[in-house]
Amino acid sequence: MKLQRAITILLLPLLFANCQKRDLDANAAKGDVMVRIPWSDFTDTEADESTQGAAKYELDNVLLKGIKNLYAMSGQFLQTFYAPKYLQDHISGNAPTLDFIRSRDGIYIPTNELSQEAAVLYAHFQNLYDLDKSLGIENLQTWPRKLTLGSVMQVNDQKVMNNTLYDGARDIYIVLKHSGQDFPLWMNAGVNAHEHFHSHFYKLVKSELLKSKKINAIVGADSHLLQEALPSDLTAKEIYTLFLIRAWDEGLADLWGWIYSGEVDFVSTSLPSLKDARSLSAKSVQGFNMEQITKENLYKNIQNQVEVYKKNPTELNSQSYLYGTAMARQLKAIFAGQIWNKKNRIEFARKIIAALPVLKDGLLKVDDKNLADPALLFSSIRSANKLSAVENERIDNITVPRGLK
Amino acid sequence: MKKIFLGILFFAQFASATFHISLGSLVEFQKEENQQSQATLNFQGGIGWLQNDTIFRLEYNQLERKSDGAVSSFSTHERRFILWDENLYALGNRYYYHWDIGLGIAEKEVQQSFAGNNETVTSDWKPLVGLNLGITRKLSSIWGIDLSGRLLAAENFEPNPNLGLLATVYFLF
């Protein structure tokens, strides 16, 4: 007994010492931490038309900077939450519990998919910060950005997974749980940039429109949230505005995905069925008939479908995506042409960002007597930027939107 | 997020007055909110010696967990050596309780598979401590059963310690 007591007395401090040592080791996984994750070195590639910027994802060493706690994946650029409660204007929940092992050469390897997912997302938001910084808009957002993992949405008694969205009211990205064997959305560089653009659009366009009550909360909400029936008292004009703002937001977000990833078909990497509908490639033919796009035509079409859209908002959603993609293809053809390199893509991004406050001002001028014009986005880009003669000519030569002429 | 490790250890001990050998396997159920529950079969073995009322036992654990994602899969192997210091206290005629403390080392090996490539990485050996609490029911002069709860904490391996429920059948000769 005496021996046991003596050993116990000797070992107990070691138990606590070990706990302390674990904390010390967690400290080692702070600051700049090298992780081994699926990655594509797309951001520095000089893609051309022949490759369409197709990304090749493979295991690679990626340095995560500014890490505060690797096991909760929080740091300078991202703070993650696991399946939190979504309260009215904020979320309440805990960080995920992640697991990595440290290799003998100091590289952290995720041991499960959630840990891999969190590390990949951190790496993307770190790079998206760099993109914002190169455009001088890094202070537009609050860093670290907040992101939720592992949630399953309940819509009309159905569980929704395999989607990502940006929630402007709570200023968070929601990465829903992944299921199935398709390439996960969270691993897709372009998809992450797409969602990040929504936060730019929300802050530069939607938030002030919401404050001035030019648009209602539904219009301000992320499009993906719009899957239940629309309020019955929504007017045709409100639905028209909803359609147009959503189309701009989604189309520009797709362009942002391409600007960041260099991948024209990044949507179809994860959602193959949308290849024709969402590809930014000029060769893609499926999409909205831009020849028909005038303010009057659009409004007439929506007036005829008001009741359908109210009962089935996903139909309205689909139409706005189609128009958004068609518009995005036009913009890419006008401003980016066939030049695919990263420098030019960033210059293109600069033009888009400069146009958003002008677009917002244009929308603020819309009153009960008139409708927002589909051409407003093009004219906003033109007035916010000093365009080259070629770019001006390309805008003048496009047949649509006719309202611009 | 909570991790629950519920282990049932089928564990036979053969002990003489001075020598002790054990062999068993652990079925570990891991339930995490982010992953489907999974059961893994693990190997465990040990040798030990008795000194007065104390058993010093060197135990070896080998654990394997697999986790499949959409495009990635993970296979983790963990190996542990633990030196347990155990002692039994009588609780009446047939019952005993014991609390044991262990010190050891552990290493982990993870295989991350993605896009047709498998990469295996091994960590350094890391220190480990264990605390084991149990109740033993002696059923005859040569055998009995034991129910134990175990807490293991290995540096940098599991953010939460393992909590296991161990059912042991032992034989005394």
SSE order of chain A, one letter for each helix or strand: HEEEEEEEHEEEEEHHHHHHHHHH
Biggest sheet strand order of chain A reads 5-4-8-12-11
Largest interface: A-B, 50 and 43 residues
Q: Spans of chain A with pLDDT under 50 lasting ≥5 residues?
A: 7-27, 400-405
Question: Percent range for helical residues of chain A?
Answer: 40-55%
Structural class of chain A: alpha+beta
Evaluate the radius of gyration of chain B.
18 Å
Polypeptide structure, described:
- The complex is a heterodimer of chains A (405) and B (173).
- With 405 residues, chain A is α+β, with helices and mostly antiparallel strands.
- Chain A has a five-stranded mixed β-sheet with strand order 5-4-8-12-11. In chain A, strands 1-2-3 form a three-stranded antiparallel β-sheet.
- The longest helix of chain A has 27 residues.
- Chain A is globular, with a radius of gyration of 24 Å.
- The C terminus of chain A is likely disordered.
- Chain B has no helices and ten strands.
- Chain B has 173 residues and is mainly beta.
- The model of chain B has no long low-confidence stretch (mean pLDDT 74).
- At the A-B interface, α1 and α2 of A face β5, β6, β7 and β8 of B.
